[in-house]
Amino acid sequence: MAQATDSRRRLLLSPSRRAFTTSAALAVASLAAPSLWAQPKLEKSKISLAVGGKASFYYLPLTIAEQLGYFKAEGLDIEFSDFAGGARALQALVGGSADVVSGAYEHTINMQSKNQFIQSFVLQGRAPQIAVGVSTKSMANYKTLADLKGKKIGVSAPGSSTNMVANLILSRAGLKPTDVSFVGVGTSSGALAALRSGQIDAMSNIDPVMTMLEQKGDVRIISDTRTLKGTLEVFGGNMPAACLYASTEFVQKNPNTCQAMANAIVHGLKWLQTAGPSDIIKTVPDSYLLGDRALYLASFNKVREAISLDGIMSEEGTRTALKALASFDPAIKPEKIDLSKTYTNDFAKRAKERFKA
Fold first, then answer.
1. Which helix (H) or strand (E) holds 101?
2. pTM for the complete prediction?
3. Could you tell me the fold of the domain covering 130-235?
């Protein structure tokens, strides 16, 4: 009888014991949770970051991360150097004056072809956001790409991604880069002035510049990668765009620092998923609006889907980039390029998990 009573007592107590065990486990988990994202010591907290045309939408995630304090929240002190185009930002990295570049992914392929290894570690854009347009004044009678022969084409900077897209478009018409003259015009008010004053006949550039020229009737768009559909038409597949990249050696020696930078960018990407036009206007510096708030917002709506959702590089996209570069640059030999060395998703995946991007 006593044995039966003890058995019933154990049965009655076991649920509470289970509850206590569960509660205790939850309490321990809640105490441990912050340590899951406890910031490891950064190998390098002060970073020199080069970018080519920071005010453009191409680098909007970078601007958002900066303006909302996401880099600082990760313990980073970022010193920005803004250049006229991505090619010059790359030169800063190669020359040793920059630790990291916010630039076009295809530079990692170009540099590997020269036996110099740089690596993307978080993606900002999943479409190039570059449009090519001809002047409605100097090329009012434009009919085909062949009409560009002998013309002056404005690009952000020679050797930049805007130059790359222009080269690709020219190759479709059997034209070589040497069949035209490329002129560096930057990515802001200088680009607008160059086209409107007749210094150039056509332009390959990014937003908000191209939307502003388009809506004012200054250019006729002949190729457009500001949308995923347009990118597919031009490149035949997904084409990665802006990313943070550094020398492979830097990435290997500074994993905690690269993780912190990836965290800041992915945090910005997450914010952009739900941000409205008014949120963007309140966040970016006034100078980025180029004096026309309405057109700036129109530009944002046009390129919004081109912004990466989670910072992760698509393997398919890297193949598309290699194919595109090889189509007009004989120095790029696809069989000699190891795409796996041009990027890593390790940091972006951890950041995605952290911010639920």
1. strand 100-104
2. 0.86
3. D-Maltodextrin-Binding Protein; domain 2 (3.40.190)
Cα separations in angstroms, 254 against 41, 79, 334, 347: 10, 17, 29, 12
How, if at all, do strands 46-52 and 100-104 pair? parallel
Main-chain phi, psi angles of 52, to 5 degrees:
-110, 90
Q: Which CATH number fits domain 46-128+239-355: 3.40.190.10, 3.40.50.300, 3.60.20.20, 3.40.220.10?
A: 3.40.190.10
What 3-state DSSP class applies to 132?
Answer: strand
Digit-coded pLDDT (tens) for 181-218: 999 999 999 999 999 999 999 999 999 999 999 999 99
The kind and range of the H/E element at 63 are helix 60-67
Place of tokens 């100078």: 287
CB-side neighbour CA atoms (13 Å) of 303: 32
How do strand 130-135 and strand 219-224 relate by DSSP bridges? antiparallel
DSSP state of 99: S
List the beta bridge partners of residue 78: 47
